[in-house]
Amino acid sequence: MNPRDEIVEALAGFAAATDQRDWSAIRDLLTPDAVAYHRTGPDAIVAVMAAHLGGCGPTQHLLGNHRISIDDDRARSLSYARVHHVGAGPMAGSFFECLGEYDDAWVRTAAGWRLSRRTFDMRIQLGDFAVLRPAEAD
Question: pLDDT tens, 41-60?
Fold first, then answer.
C-alpha cells in the first residue's frame, strides 16, 4: 500500500474507533506527544473525547475529499467531515451534526502512520450541541 492510502486508512480507522468508542485503538493511532481537541498526549485526548461522547448515542464520522501531502516520514492531511451525533438519555430525540474540515499532521513510525496533531474547523452546526455530554455517573 502506498503512503497516501495508508494515511486514508488511518483516518478511516480513527473515525471508526471513535464511533465504536474504542479508546484503546484511538490511543494506538496517536503519537505520545499528540495534540488534538486542545489537549496534549493520548490519555488527555481520549479523556476529552470520552467526555463529549460518553453520554451521547450513536455517532457517524464520514470523511472525504482527502488532500494529502507527504514529505518523507511526515505528512499533512486535510479531510472534509460530516459528523452526526444522536442524543441519548435526557437528550433522546435530539441530535447534533457538524460539518467541517480536519487538518491533521502525521508521523511515520515503525508501527505505521500516527496522528501527531489534529484540528477541526467546524463550518456548519445543526441541532443541539448539548447532545455531546459525559456519561452519567452510576
Answer: 999 999 999 999 999 999 99
d(CA 51, CA 33): 20
Closest by CA position to 114, among listed 124, 123, 104, 122: 104
Distance CA 29, CA 116 (A): 9
CA atoms within 13 A on the CB side of 70: 13
Topology of the domain covering 3-131: Nuclear Transport Factor 2; Chain: A, (3.10.450)
Concatenating the DSSP letter of every residue in 30-59 gives EEEEEEETTEESHHHHHHHHHHHHTT---E
